[in-house]
Each structure stands twice: as structure tokens, then as C-alpha cells.
Write a structure and sequence with these properties.
Shape: elongated
Organism: Pinibacter aurantiacus
Mean pLDDT: 85
Number of helices: 12
Protein name: DUF3945 domain-containing protein
Helix content: 25-40%
Number of domains: 3
Strand content: 25-35%
Largest sheet: 4 strands, antiparallel
Radius of gyration: 31 Å
Distance between the termini: 126 Å
Structural class: alpha+beta
Low-confidence stretches: 82-94, 358-377
Order of helices and strands: EHEEEHEHHHHEEEEEEHEEEHHEEEHHH
Number of strands: 17
């Protein structure tokens, strides 16, 4: 018997995805011989399907309603060609996560800033019950390209997956080489409540900001399960044996107070408590944040800023994201002369500390030898 409809591959996948989400009511366009993904919709209730069909009647559209528990049943209900390769599709052959488990697994990625990485491909791997999953995800921030590999591990007694770490590669615009860092999610018991599990974790955006050379403020957990706050910054000049860059921490004892540092600059947003809190929150997450500077004559200028922990100051950039020298900030009265001198002195001190000292042997080796006058006989 000739089939009434042919379901295209993307139509089959559309039905399959709906069934995974427990949407067993189907509305399909009975006018078309070929049913693609634009011709079939899935719903959790019959009322939703009926309402959709009623509201989408036209010269070219007439939706019929049917119910199916499996992909095979859906094909039969649509009176479609049953010779399609149903065994290729995972809904028939494999275990499907329930909605609660799906939500838990998706939340694992959401908390780390990988909302867009929870793709159909990843769900398929989870439904297959793979013990370890490596999932690639790419994202761009302005002109910078970020590539991440997510490492997920399946629980030994459930379908829950846990994100244990992710590798991040950053390709900065205009730079030939990319840089990489692995970010681990360490879970530790709460020292005050053994039932609670605390995490040291970074989001994708924080990872990007750290690899961009900016500091991020974090609530961290020590080995004893006690919480503490610290600014974290990668030392991009020191790569460790494991391939990661050194991660330096600056706790409260270091003396950097963001609110106090901001108060030294004529930033308009600081005059409004809501804008001020929003600005501080963004800077603490490591973002290069735009702010409005106001000079002594009331003239406003939009600039980018980020905290410089070691200088106890702000890095200030123009709209092309080029850093503005300290002396220029002094000239514009964006910082005081005394503060500018302190910053310049610290910069020079840092440069001197990073300049390798010349050894005594090198001094002797490079010292010219005086030619001796020949003795007259």
C-alpha cells in the first residue's frame, strides 16, 4: 500500500526530540505529501495540540492531531512510509532520560555558563549512557574565539552527569597563537554542614576573562571546606608542568578593595547606587566594563575599565580597548598627581624586578681587557 506521507529526516528528528521531552501529542500538516520539521509539532497535552491546529488553518495548512508513545507508532499514525531507518534513531533503541534527570544535567551546564552547549548531540550521548563524555563547544566574544571541551562523568547509580572540568582555548583577535587552560570543578564537603557540598568552579565567561589577563573575584573553598574570598588572576608568563598557567590568589589580606579604588576615579555610575552595584558586580566577574568618566569641566567620556590588583588601581582603556597611559589619566584629571606617581613607581619597580640581573661572570666576561704596554728592553 502506498504511504499517504513521506517523513523527511529532519521531520523524524523533530518528532524524536519531542518524544524525548515527553511531548506525545503530534500536530502534522496533512496537506503536504512530504512532512518536514516545519510540518510537524509536538505537545504535552491534547488541548495544546488542538489549539495549535485550530489556529493554523489556511489554504496550504490543515493540521491533524494524533498521539504516539514511540517514533515507530508516530510513523504508523501519520500513515507514513514505514521503511525509513527507524533503528538509526535513538528513541526506539535506547534508554531516555526522564524529565527530572534532564533538568539536572542541563543545570550542570547552566551553572558553568554553558547554556548553549546543551545540544541535541549532547543529549543523545547522555541517552546512550556513555560513562565519560567529551563535548566540544565554541563561542565568540566580540572578535575573540573560544573553544571549550567539556568533560562530563556519569553517576554510577543514576543517569545524572557531572561536569568535572573543561578545557578552554582562546584565540585573541590579531594574535597568531591561541592560549589554553583547564578549569577544574572541585567539590568539597561544607565544614559546617557535612550534608552540603560546596564547589570551586568557574564559568565560561570567567575563564575567557582570566585568559584575557583580567582578574576575577571568587568565593572559594579551602581543603578544610571553609569558604574565603579572593581575587584570582592567571600569570600568563608562568606555565606549570601540567600545562596550565599559574593561578595567583589575592585575598582580603592583600589589601585590594574594589569600592575604595573606584572612589578615586570620577566615574558617573558611582553616584547611583544601583548603577554602582551593577558596575562592581561586572568588574568582579572579570569583565572589561564600560564606564562614564567626568572631567573637572563636566565633560563626559566613555572608557573601559578593569581592576589592577597589584597596582591597587584601575586599568583604563579607550573605546578601541587600548590602555591609556598613567600620565594621560593625570593630564585629564581622572586621577590625582600623587596617585599617578605611586602607580608609575610601582610599574617601574615591577619592571626592575622582572629584569634578570647580570651575573658576576657575565660582568667579567663582558668587561674590556686593557691592553698592556710592551716592555722596552
Amino acid at each position: 500500500m502506498e504511504p499517504e506521507h513521506i517523513i523527511t529526516d529532519d521531520g523524524v528528528k523533530q518528532i524524536e526530540l519531542g518524544l524525548k521531552k515527553h511531548e506525545h501529542w503530534l500536530a502534522y500538516n496533512s496537506v503536504n505529501y512530504y512532512i518536514s520539521k516545519e510540518d510537524v509539532y509536538t505537545f504535552k497535552t491534547k488541548d495544546e495540540a488542538d489549539e495549535f491546529a485550530l489556529n493554523n488553518v489556511s489554504e496550504f495548512d490543515c493540521y491533524n492531531i494524533t498521539h504516539a508513545l514511540t517514533l515507530k507508532e508516530a510513523v504508523q499514525q501519520l500513515k507514513a512510509d514505514e521503511n525509513i531507518d527507524i533503528t538509526f534513531h535513538s528513541t526506539i533503541k535506547q534508554h531516555v532520560m526522564d524529565e527530572k534527570t534532564m533538568t539536572f544535567n542541563q543545570a550542570q551546564l547552566n551553572k558553568a555558563g554553558f547554556q548553549e552547549a546543551f545540544t541535541q548531540d549532547l543529549v543523545a550521548k547522555m541517552n546512550q549512557g556513555q560513562a565519560l563524555i567529551q563535548h566540544k563547544f565554541e563561542k565568540s566574544y566580540d572578535e575573540d574565539k573560544v573553544t571549550a571541551i567539556l568533560h562530563l562523568k556519569k553517576s554510577s547509580n543514576s543517569d545524572n552527569y557531572f561536569l568535572n572540568k573543561f578545557d578552554v582555548s582562546l584565540q585573541k583577535q590579531g594574535q597568531a597563537d591561541s592560549i589554553q587552560q583547564t578549569f577544574y570543578i572541585n567539590r568539597k564537603p561544607d565544614a559546617e554542614n557535612n550534608q552540603a557540598i560546596l564547589e570551586n568552579k568557574y564559568t565560561l565567561k570567567e575563564a575567557y576573562n582570566l585568559l584575557s589577563g583580567r582578574a576575577v573575584h571568587k568565593n572559594l573553598i579551602n581543603n578544610e571546606g571553609q569558604g574565603y574570598e579572593a581575587w584570582v588572576k592567571l600569570n600568563l608568563k608562568n606555565k606549570l608542568e601540567n600545562g596550565n598557567f599559574e593561578m595567583k590568589q589575592y585575598t582580603k589580606n592583600y589589601g585590594f578593595e574594589l569600592e575604595n579604588v573606584l572612589s578615586k576615579y570620577p566615574i558617573k555610575e558611582l553616584t547611583n547606587e544601583t548603577y554602582k552595584n551593577s558596575l562592581m558586580d561586572s568588574l568582579q566577574r572579570g569583565n572589561l566594563q564600560k564606564a562614564t568618566f567626568v572631567d573637572k569641566d563636566g565633560k563626559e567620556e566613555k572608557l573601559f575599565i578593569s581592576p589592577n590588583i597589584t597596582l591597587n588601581a584601575l586599568n583604563v582603556y579607550d573605546l578601541e580597548k587600548q590602555r591609556i597611559p598613567t600620565e594621560n589619566l593625570v593630564e585629564k584629571n581622572y586621577i590625582g598627581k600623587e596617585m599617578g606617581e605611586k602607580i608609575s613607581a610601582l610599574i617601574n619597580k615591577t619592571k626592575e624586578a622582572n629584569t634578570p640581573a647580570t651575573s658576576q661572570k657575565e660582568v667579567k666576561k663582558n668587561t674590556p681587557v686593557k691592553a698592556s704596554r710592551p716592555k722596552v728592553k
